[in-house]
Write a structure and sequence with these properties.
The structure is a single chain. It contains 6 helices and 9 strands; from the N terminus they run ββαβααβαβαββββα. It is of the alpha+beta class. The chain has a single domain, classed as Glutaredoxin. The strands form 2 sheets. Strands 2-1-5-4-3-8-9 form a 7-stranded mixed sheet. A two-stranded antiparallel ribbon has the order 6-7. It is globular.
Length: about 170
């Protein structure tokens, strides 16, 4: 499992863009983790799946509510990573109204989750391999703090915890 001091996995995630931007087209666009994290402080949180109850009702809304506080604490970007495809993450971003605040990044084949050693086996529930619920503060591509949830829990990966770590 990834730990404090380790570098983020050098994989490519996907991000669905609603509008054309500088160098990105509408639709799924690759996000090379190593390049995207370079020189930035990132509040990264991961969860088992888009549109799932805890993720939609608590996890993402908490980061949206703490957006301004996280920015004041020195966080450049907030990333939400989930083992879903870019189209699902794009639809979830619209549903959660996260544009401009939380980057909804798709880990479609669980490459990031596997490389970080933070997978969750939900095959028995028909959901395949997913990401464990966790958060981490990342500074220039390196893990500065890591908060991994126990199975079925939502106690340490919330925005409040990561905000306290960003301030501290």
């Amino acid at each position: 499992m990834i730990k404090v001091g380790d570098t983020l996995p050098d994989v490519t995630l996907q991000e669905y863009s609603e509008v054309e931007g500088e160098g990105c087209s509408i639709g799924p666009n690759p996000v090379k983790v190593k390049e995207a994290a370079a020189g930035k402080t990132i509040a990264l949180f991961a969860l088992p799946g888009a549109f799932t109850p805890t993720c939609s009702a608590k996890h993402v809304p908490g980061y949206l509510q703490k957006f301004d506080d996280l920015k004041k604490a020195g966080v450049d970007e907030i990333w939400c990573v989930s083992v879903n495809d870019a189209f699902v993450m794009g639809a979830w971003a619209r549903d959660q109204k996260s544009a401009g605040k939380v980057r909804m990044l798709a880990d479609g084949s669980a490459d990031f989750a596997k490389a970080a050693g933070l997978t969750l086996d939900l095959n028995a529930r028909g959901m395949g391999t997913r990401s464990t619920r966790y958060s981490m503060l990342v500074k220039d591509g390196k893990v500065a703090s890591l908060n991994v949830e126990a199975p079925g829990k939502f106690e340490v990966s919330d925005a409040e915890t990561l905000l306290a770590q960003a301030k501290g």
